[in-house]
Amino acid sequence: MERTTLQQALEHADLTSAQADAYLTLLKHGRLSATDVANRSTVSTSQVYSTLRSLESMGFVDTIEQDTLHAEPREPTEIFAHLRDRSTLLTDAADELVERWEQPAVNSYRVSVVKNSDTVIERVRNRLSETSHGVEMALTIDQLESLAPDLRATIERGVFVRVSVYEGHKVGKRCHEAGLLDQSLELRVVTIPGPFLAVLDRHHTYFMPNSRAPETYGILINDEILSLINHWYFQTCLWSMYEPIESTRRVSPTYISLEEFIRDVAPLYHDGATVTVQIDAIDIETERERTVTGTISGLFYPGLLDGVSQPSLEELSTYSTVFLDTGQDRLAVGSWGAVFEDIEAQKIILKDVRLDER
Fold first, then answer.
1. What is the largest CA-CA distance in the chain?
2. Going by fewer Cβ within 10 Å, which terminus of the chain is more open, N or C?
3. CA dist., res. 183 & res. 77, Å (int)
4. Pairing mode, if any, of strands 160-166 and 134-139?
5. Which segments of the chain belong to CATH 3.30.870.10?
6. CATH code, residues 3-78
């Protein structure tokens, strides 16, 4: 490295031009008087004494009082440490700038694309701590193990969580070791590889292609309509077609999909059962959250007039409404994106089912 370049490096490490010049002069010639330092460098005679004193205070040189002031370079331990610390700081700063460039502000986007897959996982991790209603997620077993502590904390807050795991080695055993089989969630195993997908509270969607994709990228979505599309992809392609892991098989009393609720409850209702539910919802008129409890007093969906007692999810994807008798009001309950109903159901808890004795 040329002297000029080396001096520039020292200046970037917080040395002044005079300090860098004087220090390099002493490294080259060894002990020199202050006058000789000034003569062999660009440091002026009036400035050389204060420059050498400042280098001594920084631990770079020793000064000796003889007939005149002399200086000699100290073993360069201090400057080595100084340069390496500065190098680490600048490298870390560069890495942070790259990461911030790739990660848009949390509330500043509707759809963003990032290059780093770790960014997507970290965003999901952060968003899970703020999720209040429902989580739908499809991922590999390695990704599941990474997010397991966050999912457990989310479930403990009362959030409804459903997870599809792409088939891998010893999925059930690894889910058990991650402490997920004892949680109030249903795990299903998908038999073909697929993308990472997380739909959180209907507004936030995170997507990454599977490992076979030619390039790595992630998509961050903050939009209800696009999240609805991803919800239906999860529902029809990554969830309904597969069975639960045996050790987690259970009849779930909670739904975050009105269509699933109607599919399961319609036969009971048509057989005369009294179905009591609690619904966390959005009031269509006020746009505020509300919780209502009541009994099902009516259903409306394709095929109803033709005597279909258990409509399919495909049929229900067109339109469906549940009517709820709260004892004070009769409310029309709509699905995701409801416009004409009174409330939009976010989470439905099946409280009781009673069959009339005949």
1. 119
2. C
3. 55
4. parallel
5. 112-248
6. 1.10.10.10
254-355 CATH: 2.30.30.690
Q: Which one, of 201, 207, 232, 237, lies nearest residue 221 by Cα?
A: 207
DSSP 75: P
Length of the chain: 358
Domain 112-248 has CATH 3.30.870.10: yes
How distant is the alpha carbon of residue 146 from its chain centre?
A: 12
pLDDT tens digits for range 296-342: 999 999 888 888 888 988 888 888 999 999 999 999 999 988 888 99
pLDDT score of 135? 94
Alpha-helix residue ranges (DSSP H) falling in the chain: 3-12, 17-29, 34-40, 45-57, 77-102, 117-128, 141-156, 171-177, 224-233, 258-270, 313-316
- In terms of Cα–Cα distance, which of 27, 77, 31, 21 is closest to 51? 21
**Residue 48 to residues 38, 255, 306: CA-CA distances in angstroms?**
6, 79, 100
Residues of the chain below pLDDT 70 = 1, 78-79, 90, 93-94, 96-109, 168-169, 181-184, 246-252, 357-358
Tokens at residue 172, please?
């059930």
Tokens (6 digits) for 115: 């290059």
pTM comes to 0.63
What does the DSSP 8-state code read for residue 244? B
CA 170-173-179 angle, 5° bins? 140
CA atoms within 13 A on the CB side of 70: 9
Instruction: Return the HEC string of 184-212.
Output: CCEEEEECCCCCEEEEECCCEEEEECCCC
